[in-house]
Design goal:
about 170 residues; 5-stranded parallel beta sheet; globular
């Protein structure tokens, strides 16, 4: 595993897993939120975002975490392993609420400085409706790459996968 992509619903634990796995695997870690946001919750414009992604995936070794559906094709094409945290949305929502509460007012490690954690109803509804839209689009993107997708349905399956790969 030299080029690993971690995807899944918001609140599934992509960033936490990436921070744990990258040093164990000796891979440089790239958070999509670092590429997609600038201080003050300013979105990176699409052409610049795509330039940043092209540069990131051109490397021979990396671990990239995050969905950003419109940017999945080049990342999927270059990844040798895709970890899909296909966790229940109820679990993701609980984790998201806990994250908002515990990190409120501060920037998470996977976000640029100046992007403090906060409750955002639109974002919460996006996660709540994951199975109706984002999941469908994600599934369509990953379908051609099924041979390199490791679908993990819950934290227990993730723990088993980590144990099997000595990444516990």
């Amino acid at each position: 595993m030299q080029r690993v992509l971690i995807i899944g619903p918001c609140g599934s634990g992509k960033s936490t897993l990436a921070r744990e796995l990258a040093p164990k695997m000796g891979l440089p870690l790239i958070h999509m939120d670092h590429l997609g946001w600038q201080s003050g919750w300013v979105e990176t414009d699409k052409p610049e975002l795509h330039r940043r992604i092209d540069k990131a995936v051109s490397g021979e070794r990396w671990l990239i975490e995050g969905n950003y559906g419109s940017t999945l094709p080049p990342r999927l094409a270059r990844a040798d392993t895709v970890l899909y945290l296909d966790f229940p949305i109820t679990l993701c929502l609980r984790r998201l609420l806990r994250r908002i509460w515990t990190m409120r007012g501060t920037s998470r490690p996977d976000m640029p400085e100046g992007c403090p954690e906060r409750f955002d109803l639109e974002f919460f509804l996006y996660v709540f409706n994951w199975n109706l839209g984002p999941r469908v689009r994600t599934e369509a993107h990953i379908a051609p790459y099924a041979e390199k997708v490791v679908r993990l349905k819950d934290p227990a399956e993730l723990a088993q996968w980590r144990e099997a790969h000595n990444l516990g």
